[in-house]
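Practice problem 4.
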């Protein structure tokens, strides 16, 4: 496996090249209304059924900022330790397209709501030394455009304005990323933070989170090269593929004596390649100016502190808490990667489960079972309280670890509690030394030759005797007692 701490380099005919990556992540704000109107934002609605007069740009309609959208953006900024700008302003970004009924997009260019922050990622979740801190330049709030549908008519394109005016946070990273793996780790971590905070559902398949991928290449140590921007990439895997393809394409162009054109590109996942869409516009091409219909946003200290107080325990803090309880760094990383997993695991701890044993069980047993069932933890058929009951029966010696696996399978099938299954099916672990001694005596008598070999130094036969005893007692004997009694009789 590649060393996550080694610099990522691509080899060309003229030597090694370094990749420089920046991501502009568009995250749809969790809200029951759009940024400047009261229209709904539910995914999958019939075309043009969630469009207010403001969204359709009817004459005389004036935008009014949605307080909840602003609050969620501020909470997101606080979650990445970013500077919150108490004074910010909306600008008009002017361009003409069929899915933009106003002829401009309301955005924030010069004075964004959120300033600089950072996100710390583990490129390899098993290796603490692979930590990287990625700078975030800004988070600004803007409205989304509508959508053109090209597959509804043989000669015409239709317009769906359901997304028109939906609130987006554009989270702009600094050009600090240096490999596809780093970009993937950053996007996964950012998605996790958004989902913990509750400011975006992070559903990339539905388009509520997508990334514009900026890529350039240079010889290590040189100045930044000319970048391209690949628009609207909607999965972590595709973002990593875009970087790989685009970097290699640029290296090939440069090594053949060509130059990179600053342009916007699209990714074709079927072909695994990017293609040119249009030359990249500079800011002045959009004729930005302050939106005359909107006053600047002015936030007071109390609003910001209320936003801060509303934040939950975030992934890094939760991971450190788990590690302080003795959970391995890897397990802690896995358990905090998704907010649903972390909430389920916290429920397990709240129900009294011992942290280390619980973490090992969730990562090894529960995840495996859910994978087999094709379900996720939000749809887990076993509740945290039921899981804590199962682990408690193992901890107090009522059942063995192997019987626990059987009980767990029955819990998944029936939904019944562990204690009820153990009682109903007579699965209690037997710690009766008399009964165990009786079975051991029979096994030793039937295998006198192996007993002699063991006593002559073939100590690996001890496992054979343990297995035979457990088999004779149908797996219900207490393994600790079996080991203790066998040692006493053999030694």
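Answer key:
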């Amino acid at each position: 496996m590649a060393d996550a701490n080694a610099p990522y380099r691509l080899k060309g005919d003229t030597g090694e090249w370094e990749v420089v990556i920046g991501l502009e992540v568009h995250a749809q704000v969790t809200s029951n209304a759009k940024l400047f109107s009261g229209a709904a934002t539910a995914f999958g609605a019939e075309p043009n059924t969630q469009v207010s007069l403001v969204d359709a740009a009817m004459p005389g309609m004036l935008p009014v900022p949605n307080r909840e959208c602003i609050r969620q953006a501020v909470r997101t900024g606080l979650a990445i330790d970013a500077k919150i700008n108490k004074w910010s302003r909306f600008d008009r970004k002017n361009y003409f397209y069929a899915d933009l009924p106003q002829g401009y997009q309301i955005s924030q260019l010069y004075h964004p709501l959120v300033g600089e922050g950072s996100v710390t990622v583990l490129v390899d979740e098993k290796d603490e030394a692979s930590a990287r801190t990625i700078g975030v330049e800004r988070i600004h709030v803007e409205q989304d455009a509508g959508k053109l549908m090209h597959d509804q008519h043989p000669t015409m394109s239709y317009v769906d304005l359901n997304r028109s005016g939906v609130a987006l946070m554009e989270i702009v990273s600094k050009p600090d990323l240096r490999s596809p793996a780093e970009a993937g780790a950053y996007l996964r971590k950012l998605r996790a933070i958004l989902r913990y905070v509750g400011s975006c559902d992070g559903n990339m398949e539905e388009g509520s989170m997508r990334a514009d991928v900026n890529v350039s290449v240079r010889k290590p140590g040189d100045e930044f090269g000319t970048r391209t921007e690949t628009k609207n990439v909607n999965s972590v895997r595709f973002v990593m593929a875009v970087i790989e393809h685009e970097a290699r394409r640029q290296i090939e162009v440069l090594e053949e004596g060509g130059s990179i054109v600053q342009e916007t590109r699209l990714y074709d996942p079927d072909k695994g390649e990017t293609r040119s869409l249009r030359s990249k516009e500079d800011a002045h091409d959009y004729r930005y100016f302050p939106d005359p219909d909107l006053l600047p946003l002015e936030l007071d200290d109390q609003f910001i502190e209320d936003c801060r107080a509303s934040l939950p325990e975030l992934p890094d803090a939760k991971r450190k808490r788990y590690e302080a309880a003795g959970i391995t760094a890897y397990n802690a990383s896995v358990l905090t990667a998704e907010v649903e997993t972390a909430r389920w695991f916290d429920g397990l701890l709240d129900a009294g489960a011992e942290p280390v044993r619980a973490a090992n069980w969730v990562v090894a047993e529960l995840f495996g079972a859910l994978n087999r069932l094709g379900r996720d933890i939000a749809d887990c058929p076993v509740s945290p309280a039921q899981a804590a009951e199962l682990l408690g029966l193992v901890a107090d010696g009522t059942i063995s670890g192997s019987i626990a696996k059987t009980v767990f399978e029955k819990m998944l099938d029936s939904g019944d509690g562990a204690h009820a299954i153990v009682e109903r099916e007579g699965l209690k672990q037997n710690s009766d030394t008399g009964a165990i001694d009786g079975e051991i005596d029979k096994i030793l008598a039937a295998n006198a030759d192996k007993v002699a070999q063991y006593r002559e130094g073939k100590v690996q036969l001890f496992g054979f005797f343990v297995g035979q005893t457990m088999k004779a007692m149908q797996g219900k004997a207490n393994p600790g007692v079996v080991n203790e009694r066998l040692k006493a009789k053999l030694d």
